[in-house]
Amino acid sequence: MSLDRFIKSGSLGTRVNQNDKFGQLKVTIAKFYRVTGGTTQNRGVIPDIRFPSVYEMDFGESTELHALPWDEISPALFKPMDQVSPYIAKLRIKSQKRTAHDPEFQYLLEDIQHYKDSKSLTLNERKRKAERERLEAKRLRRINERRQRKGLKPLPKGAKIPSDEEAPDAFLRETERILADYISLSNPNGGTELAKTEKGRQATPEAKSQTAKVKEN
Questions:
Q1: Is 6 in a helix, a strand, or coil?
Q2: Are 60 and 8 in contact (CB under 8 A)?
């Protein structure tokens, strides 16, 4: 799982000092290969499930004119376990349905679109201040929407934002959910035990106390 693609540079370089006048010369001396024989050069590692990302365009070494091409060598001797591929399609569908209704992912999509639409940065002080105020208002709105989903009162404008009110890691949380889906699909009994564990955690005195505090607020 990835935002887009893991490392697209699969080469190893070293710098050779020329002199103070000409600086350094970068020389490629090796290339990395995976056990399947293919290199990560240019293509990176293509994820099975993609998350939204600002960096959907090509960038980095792979865009350079004389970047080394992708190639492959004889694979290493190993026995593929193939424990995940039978479930990839179902895992992808479950994740897509979940993230389509996840407010945090909707925030991410909103930010990505804003980034793509922003073609320039104004140097006008008045406009920059207005933009900063707009971003602060958006941040407060999202914080209050999260608080509302927790049953908490909204924070007024200008209030000090508690440190625990920052945006959660939506990618990490969804990755955990995908892992839980995989456990359920690949091992029904394991999935049942996982669900029981989660219910048990919610039933602990500490969890009940936290729930009571939320309701009181």
A1: strand
A2: yes
Radius of gyration for the alpha carbons in the chain, expressed in angstroms and rounded? 24
CB-based burial of residue 99 (10 Å sphere; 0-12 exposed, 13-18 middle, 19+ buried)?
buried
Per-residue pLDDT reduced to its tens digit, 171-211: 999 999 999 999 999 887 755 555 555 555 445 444 444 44
Question: Could you give the CA distance from residue 16 to residue 33 in angstroms, rounded to a whole number?
Answer: 24
Share of the chain above pLDDT 70, in %: 76
| Assessment of whether the complete model's pTM goes beyond 0.70 | no
Where exactly are the structural domains of the chain?
1-80, 85-119+169-210, 120-165
Q: Would you call 8 exposed, middle or buried from its count of C-beta atoms within 10 A (0-12, 13-18, 19+)?
A: buried
Q: Is 134 left (phi over 0), alpha (psi -120 to 50) or beta?
A: alpha
